[in-house]
Amino acid sequence: MIGRTLFPLLLVVLLGSVADPRAGADTLAAFTQVGVSVAGVDFGAIYDTAATYFGHGTIVITAPAGAAFSIALSGGFHPDGDHRNLQRIGGRERIPYNLYSDAGCTIPWGDSDSSATFPSARSVMGLGMGRDQPITTYGKLTLPALLPAGAYTDSVTVSILY
Question: What is the dihedral of CA 75, 133, 12, 55, to 10 degrees?
Answer without folding.
Answer: -60
